[in-house]
Amino acid sequence: MTDEDSKKTVETDADSAADELAPAEESPDDEQAPSMDAIEADLTTRDADVTADQFLDLESDLAPTAATEVDDSIVARVTGAGRVDADAVPDAFPVDIETDTALAIELSVRDETVTTFFEYPDSGTNERLGRWLATLEIDPGAFADLNGQRVLLTVEEGFYVPIVPDHPPRGSRLGIVGILAGLAFSAAFYASLLVGFVSLWWVVGFALVTLVVLPAVTALDAWSLATETDWRQSPWFWSVLLGIPPINVPAGILYLYYRRQARSLTDP
């Protein structure tokens, strides 16, 4: 090998060594490593999400009385009952509990267990509880009969509560017979006017039926609905309306429609 060839070989080896020692150029497409601040921010966000989920789970466990769906009336079944301290009743519960002890009623609603409350006096029966039991035809002395009973609930301020009438049962379902007869008589009277048939006794009979009989039997039937079903209209309103000719017939038809929608509190 000549001196010139040796010199070229040395230069080539030196260039290769320099290339190996030189730092590699960063590609613009390479991702930069995240900073510590970014890592800490990401961990903080994940921790907050996990904590929020935990609180939501606890909320569902600790608020068994909260309604998850709102309907006009909901069928439930009584599954348990017991006395609890009044402090256990949620502050937002729509019915005031002024006794030291509350009666907690467990209810099964669509595969969900919820709890509602009544006042539990030291002696006797709470008025609201008494009206509810009377509506269900359960004697306070036979309270165990409440177990397994189907009841109607409504939703007030986000809580399931039993539908409890403002008055004990009154009136009679037999009033519907008088309503149907009175409406039929009134309709026949109006039809007779169209054909020109009028007599004194016919008019007297119509006045008696319209102004006396229909209001009386309507009140009898409407009070039965108001205290034994989830019907929440005024008995007096319909009693007066069905006593006003000539609107008593269409008003009576509308009353019968609303009556058909009512659901019994005793056997929903």
Could you give the topology of this structure?
Layout: H1 3-21, H2 36-62, E1 74-85, E2 101-109, E3 112-119, H3 127-135, E4 150-156, E5 159-162, H4 175-194, H5 200-228, H6 235-241, H7 248-261
Antiparallel strand pairs: 1-2, 1-4, 2-3, 4-5
Helix pairs in contact: 4-5, 5-6
Describe the structure.
There is one protein chain. The protein is an alpha+beta fold. Among the domains are: 89 residues, no CATH class; 87 residues, no CATH class. Helix 4 packs antiparallel against helix 5 and helix 5 runs antiparallel to helix 6. The N and C termini lie far apart (113 Å). Keywords: Membrane, Transmembrane, Transmembrane helix.
Count of β-strands: 5
* Helix amount: 40-55%
Structure annotation, total helices: 7
Poorly predicted sequence stretches spanning 5 or more consecutive residues: 5-14, 17-31, 54-64
| Secondary structural class | alpha+beta
Shape: elongated
Mean pLDDT: 80
Percentage of residues in strands: 5-15%
Task: Give helix and strand order, one letter per element, not per position.
Answer: HHEEEHEEHHHH
Provide the spatial order of strands within the biggest beta sheet.
Answer: 3-2-1-4-5
What gap, in angstroms, lies between the N and C termini? 113 Å
Rounded to an integer in angstroms, the radius of gyration calculated over CA atoms is 39 Å
- Major sheet size, sense and barrel closure: 5 strands, antiparallel
Keywords: Membrane, Transmembrane, Transmembrane helix
